[in-house]
What we know:
By secondary structure, the chain is an alpha/beta fold. It contains 19 helices and 11 strands. The chain has a domain at about 5-250 and about 475-505: Amidase signature (AS) enzymes (Alpha-Beta Complex), CATH 3.90.1300.10. About 45% of the residues lie in helices and about 10% in strands. The strands form 2 sheets. Strands 4-6-5-10-11-9-7-8 form an 8-stranded mixed beta sheet, sandwiched between helices. It has a 3-stranded mixed beta sheet with strand order 1-3-2. α3 (about 25-45) runs antiparallel to α4 and α12 (about 340-350) crosses α14 (about 400-410). The N and C termini lie close together (about 5 Å). The model has no long low-confidence stretch (mean pLDDT about 95).
Amino acid sequence: MTHDEYIGHDASGLAQLIRAKEVTASELLDLALERVSILNPEVNAVVRLMEEDARAAAERGTLTGVFAGVPFLAKDLGNEFAGHPTSAGSRLTADIVAKQDTELVRRLRATGVSIFGKTNLPEFGLTPYTEPELWGPCRNPWDLGRTPGGSSGGSGAAVAAGFVPMAGAGDGGGSIRIPASCCGLFGLKPTRGRTPTGPFRGQVWRGATVEHILSRSVRDSAVMLDATHGADPGAPYEITLPERPFAEEVERAPGRLRIAWTTKPTLGPEVHPDCILAVEEAVSLLEELGHELSETGPQIDSDAFAHAFMLMIASEVGADMNDAETVLGRRARRGELEPVTWALGLLSKSLSAREFSSALRLLEREARSVGAFFEKHDILLTPTLATPPAKIGELAPAAVEQLQLRILGLIGSGRLVKAIGLLDDIAKHAFDFTPWTPLYNVTGQPAMSVPLHWNPDGLPIGIHFVARFGAEATLFRLAGQLERARSWAEQLPEIAKSILKTQGTAL
Length: 507
């Protein structure tokens, strides 16, 4: 198989070729590893290789399942592999070795994917860009000077660069949908509780975080969700099982949907004209496809929501630090964590139980309000992001903010962190980039970013669709319809194709 043929197939297509004995798992692994060796020095998407394990499984011929033998990369957070470290993008946790597989990893293995490495991410998955101090910035294959998004930025970049046809991802505030938009991919965040979080966690970020994948095609996302969904023992949520396999939904007509749309940001002030144009074009396409469109959107108290969301995250960061300290058998040192993460840990120590519970209640009230909105609408359409992919460093705290954070870290006062409100200001900068995605982590609703638009600079701009709680089937039906109407399969960044010029022969 040539590189051209490799990047011309999605995961389902490659699996079909393996079953037909037209290619072997070892041959595909060779191609994936060669692409990583040539392109990763520029992209910096893969931070750990697990080649020995993948090679042994491929050569034994023991890989079975719907994706048997297809190369796969896992996000280095939330996916723990027995005998391998999980860095979470942090110096503090970089060398902590997992004692057993998480339930999701167990289910991924059961699909037969050839897992040969882990992808770059921001520390603890905290930011919508991927520039960790531990691994260095990950770069967008569409423009190496820009971010692939975050927190699953390494996975997004790896798929866009053609290392793999799909990769593991998690979404706590947009971390599947943001890289999907930045990298020209399909990214679906499942409903809260749809995929497992055990056995170590009952829920992540109070249920806001859900694990799934980033992919080139809609069907790969659906087939993988079919293989991995469902509650595990002790799970805090057990949602209604789908009426039929998600893979079948991709091929079914969605019917006439009531689609609300808006370009007014939920959490930020402005939206780039390119993102507005992308939505307007999507609205026209959906009208042509027979759907009912109306310009409206849910209303929330954006400032209160953003503050409450940050308090929830701060408390979770504090708990993550405690867990790491328990495993390490010592206290975390300030230099082992980035300034923002350290400041969040300090803030968590200053929060009262009353403040924490009040923040959660506010988030729950906003979720109820949004739920009522979806009684009248099947789908909400917005831009995924407020701007095209940002430049590397553009979303990070400014130099003066970095200095303030370091001073606060030296002082070590959570009360002072809270009083100054610096973290709220930094969060606002991130929310300006991602004004829609976090809300639907709090509501638990399924949402997806669909690559329907590229701007004049050749940068991808995703369109964001949200459905009712538990209604992934609706999203997959709509996504399948959009993919057939406006296929993006041939849209590849030049760096993904550049390897063909020098390595275009079969291995």
